[in-house]
Design goal:
- This protein has 9 helices and 9 strands.
- The radius of gyration is 22 Å and the shape is globular.
- The strands form 2 sheets. A 5-stranded antiparallel β-sheet has the order 1-8-3-6-9, with helices on one face.
- By secondary structure, it is an alpha+beta fold.
- It starts with 15 loop residues before the first strand and ends in a 6-residue tail after the last helix.
- A hairpin with a 2-residue loop joins strand 4 and strand 5.
Length: 305
């Protein structure tokens, strides 16, 4: 047989990465703005933020994404009420398909959120320094980074863009297939539904002092099943994960600056401020005071002009 190769067409190609950030901002953070000759992608992971893009003023909520095209002026500020968590990635891409993203505000799905999580995870292993410094202007590669870590960043970002392009252009093909017998995928989907049910219950009862028995009884899930689901997905037990969610909520409340540490501790159902502080340090590596000072310091490193 005489085989012939096919040159693969790449509709979106990321040539360079300039920055990758995950920010936890105070509720009154402001960034005066900038322009640069490459793309910047901003995703609201939690909360909301006011954004300027060229001559437009926009409000972005959780799960929304905006793309600033090269040389477009952009700025942002928190609204003074809700402390936002943001993902910012800036990159060079000269592919014609990128014109679709100009002046676009889109919504991301859980799958696209997982791609963002992969980008952040690989960036932490690929580059030195912290990802929460908004004024970092150069990524410094780690000499002992895992094989392929930068390539995974590139591929995940390209995948994210392609999926958004397909979904919003309506160009994804509809594939008609004959019905198939159920496979192991059915079990996987069922497990995901159970996991999401537990997760939703946790989020809705974040201020309660829940036990694993409370969670399992209320979500109709066996104890061993719940533990296995969370260990497989998060490498920790159910209550450990719930504790992490509580501390994430505590971090948000600290950044909102509406309550002191004792009030936050009481609101989240901790038995004492001392226990709250120990749990906070165990999970974050900092006390609540150290965290507040750290975030405040980042926000004030370069005051807005």
């Amino acid at each position: 047989m005489s085989y012939q190769s096919v040159t693969l067409i790449e509709d979106i190609v990321i040539n360079k990465i300039y920055s990758i950030h995950y920010f936890e901002y105070m509720s009154d953070f402001q960034f005066a703005g900038e322009t640069h000759n490459f793309w910047e992608m901003l995703v609201v992971d939690k909360g909301e933020v006011d954004v300027t893009a060229g001559d437009k003023n926009l409000v972005l909520n959780r799960g929304e994404i905006i793309f600033h095209k090269p040389n477009e002026f952009h700025s942002l500020r928190a609204n003074g009420k809700i402390a936002p968590n943001l993902v910012v990635v800036s990159f060079e891409c000269n592919s014609p398909a990128m014109s679709f993203f100009e002046e676009q505000t889109l919504k991301i799905t859980d799958y696209e959120r997982s791609l963002l999580g992969t980008i952040i995870k690989e960036a932490r292993m690929s580059f030195k320094g912290r990802l929460d410094d908004p004024y970092q202007e150069k990524l410094i590669p780690e000499s002992l980074r895992p094989p392929g870590s930068m390539q995974i960043i590139k591929l995940s970002l390209e995948m994210l863009l392609i999926i958004l392009l397909r979904r919003y252009e309506g160009s994804a093909p509809v594939i008609h297939e004959e019905p198939k017998m159920p496979t192991k995928l059915t079990t996987v989907n069922a497990d995901t539904e159970v996991y999401n049910r537990i997760l939703t219950y946790m989020e809705e009862h974040i201020y309660a002092n829940l036990t694993i028995d409370d969670l399992c009884r209320s979500t109709l899930v066996g104890r061993s099943k719940a533990q296995k689901l969370f260990r497989d997905r998060n490498n920790c037990g159910v209550i450990n994960y719930f504790s992490q969610l509580k501390i994430e909520k505590a971090k948000e409340l600290i950044r909102n600056k509406d309550m002191n540490f004792t009030q936050i501790s009481d609101l989240l159902g901790y038995t004492s401020i001392h226990y709250f502080s120990r749990q906070f340090k165990k999970i974050t590596g900092m006390t609540p005071s150290e965290y507040a000072s750290s975030i405040k310091g980042i926000s004030e490193k370069h005051p807005p002009v």
